Amino acid sequence: MNRFLFSTGIENSYPTIRLSDGATARVDEMEKCGHYQRWGEDFQLVREMGIEYLRYGPPYYRTHLGPGRYDWSFSDETFNELQKLNINPIVDLCHFGVPDWVGNFQNPEWPPLFAEYARAFAARFPWVRFYTPVNEIYVCAIFSAQWGLWNERLSSDRAFVTALQNLCNATLLAERAILQVRPDARFIQSESSEYFHPEDPAVREKADLFNEKRFLSLDLCYGKDVSARMYQYLTDNGMSREDYAWFQHEGRALKPHCIMGNDYYITNERLVSKDGHLSRAGEVFGFYVIAKQYFDRYHMPVMHTETNLPDSLKSPAWLWKEWANIIRLKQDGVPIIGFTWYSLTDQVDWDTALCENNGHVNALGLYDLDRKIRPVGEQYRRLIAQWGEALPAESICLHADRPTPDMF
Fold first, then answer.
1. What percent of the chain stands above pLDDT 70?
2. Are 92 and 15 in contact (CB under 8 A)?
3. Where residue 71 sits, what CATH number does that domain have?
4. How does pLDDT run across 307-325, given as a tens digit for each residue?
5. Could you give the number of structural domains in the chain?
6. Does residue 47 belong to any structural domain of this protein?
7. Does 406 fall in a domain?
8. In terms of Cα–Cα distance, which of 136, 301, 270 is closest to 203?
9. What is the pLDDT confidence band of residue 390, given thresholds at 50, 70 and 90?
10. Which residue of 107, 306, 374, 392 lies most exposed, with the fewest beta carbons within 10 A?
11. Which domain holds residue 126?
């Protein structure tokens, strides 16, 4: 029997932000959450939970020192320990930030440099099979280049398309590079599963536009032809026809090596107001409906790669609800292969989307920052024990050494 991929993660975001005094600062969640000092303890907690898969990655900005230059000291320690503990990492190579010497996601020279980094990592740790080359491309491009919150802090459609193109380019080049080292690698592209609800009939067209735009990162990464409206949007804002054709070719060629990662939080559904303002809608459709929309578009194996609730009292109920959605999707024929509570420990300052250094602890982990288990951790441990052998994964997407385009 092929085991279902129960997972958690070590939150490792590291964008740069602008402080109130105008200075720029790097936000490193692994530092804020104490992981650099307590990584051995954190890995033991993963084992105590009965979890065999961990979304985890080295701090990219500290590791990639320059073209062809890497500092593997922290990675050597941590990944060697993961191997000893038989924890399978789903390696997160870029999570919302780049090294200072790269600049930001507007830099067209970054994607091939990132691919060299990915190849070097795969060669150093050839036992690693699962990767998320670039985490949440859509979110990263929106926050960095559309909403002006992180990194380049730009706010335009052209900046967004530039960031999107570079992030997707980096992903596909990295996948090619990793496959040269590990031909049976699998890429679990964690992406935010979004939906936009019109608040008024007058904004239905605008909501439809947002609902097409939410797919762009995966469309480019999986070679899915976009609508005429989205094609015009991309080319009007800097993408050439040749670049678009390249994404179509490369995305389709690499898609058989991929598993679609769908992230869902209570903040993923938004209301579109008459003036175009976006606000939180709460859980209206829920994970089942939105994940099914993504599956119907791409027809790929699915992993629920992120969820949590920043309320320690309500988190167990949220976990149960997400799990019920997983069971129903699987019963209805969607090839769900894994589930993730994200993350292992509480996080810090996500209540301001990491835009302020307030030191606010967000109670959404399986454990608090003192590494004491939370009620949701107790429930997740029971869930894994109950369902670990009862819910097999789809073997075709995990165990075939050389997938073919018609597999999915």
1. 95
2. no
3. 3.20.20.80
4. 999 999 999 999 999 999 9
5. 1
6. yes
7. no
8. 270
9. confident
10. 392
11. 5-399
